[in-house]
Amino acid sequence: xxxxxxxxxxxxxxxxxxIEINGAExxxxxYPTSTEYLGRGIDLMHNxxxxxxxxxxVFDHDASQEDVFVEISQLVxxxxxxYKVCIFAxxxxxxxxxxxMMGKPDVLDQKGLIPRSLEQIFQTSQSLLSQxxxxxxxxxxxxxxxxxxxxxLATNRSSSQDTxxxxxxxxxxxxxxxxxxDLTIVDVxxxxxxxxxxxxxxxxxxVGKTQMNxxxxxxxxxxxxxxxxINENTDQQVQGxxxxxxxxxxxxLARSGATxxxxxxxxxxxxxxxxxxxxxxxxxxxxxxxxxxxSKLTYxxxxxLGGDSKTLMFVNIxxxxxxxxxxxxxxxxxARVNSCEIGIPRRQTQMRIADPRLSYx
Length: 361
Ligand code: ADP
Ligand code: MG
Hints:
Number of strands: 15
Bound molecules: adenosine-5'-diphosphate, magnesium ion
Number of helices: 9
CATH class: Alpha Beta
Mean pLDDT: 85
CATH superfamily: Kinesin motor domain
Largest sheet: 10 strands, mixed
CATH architecture: 3-Layer(aba) Sandwich
Oligomer: single chain
CATH topology: Kinesin
Number of domains: 1
Structural class: alpha/beta
Shape: globular
């Protein structure tokens, strides 16, 4: 159960065929087998020293997409009950963030958390019809690159050229609902509709990749599903949000040896990732001022990062020796996040005839 802590799951990807396996890799990652740490512990060897970490769950290289999904399906489900849910994938480029989140949506056993979550949400909403529940869902997908929002569902590409100051400005209303001006929001009623959108977004992302220097690994990808439910029998209403976020690569400057534009890019990523950690740690310390506004990502997610949401972070790990330094950094960060208590999650639910005393029941 969620004790108000940010949960953290660690996932180690397999060595990749050809490139890494042929290179006679020494095993740097191992897993404690004691009953106490089974499935929760991970050990890394670095410069003849052992570094041990524990999380809520550790998935080794053998874990399938289904194995991972089973462990988050309850959390996804709670968005239908009116919770705000955020799932992040954090880790260096190449560690398996996109594989975990999106995977290959058209290959059955390689589908990632996003397509699986959506399938489950549509299935469950269908089965809740018999209890009087009717749901309306809206999807949006965006990318944040160098502190600029890009709408991945915009059909009119040319319009993205006109970047007026007010384009994609973020506003939160009194109910904690977020509006991004000019962002494409699509009503979705079936998994087929969403699959189509996922394809469109993937295409839009990969266009950016060739045009803009592998932009996709340098940007945050945010998938948002807004869920509105009303029960015809009881007049109860719920509003949930599911955010699935594929963060930009967390590799540090020193290693990437970046200069010029790439340096600026890396600084922007490092800044927004450190803003994310500042926000998490500041909520955990119950500080009066939480610096949400310091980055686009944290401001966008403000209502979903507050104390009443459910947050889960995946820390993705590359298993090869050359990544051990970065892996230890990622694991240290994740361990700090894991120790954070952000509060008790609350459902957003109310009766159809709004009574202020009943909201946030
Ligand atoms: P990131 O998004 O963190 O940069 P990717 O998700 O693109 O990393 O993964 C890098 C490579 O590793 C890709 O070729 C991907 O298909 C592969 N990969 C990642 N995780 C797994 C996994 N669990 N099983 C098999 N292949 C994986
Ligand atoms: Mg990626």
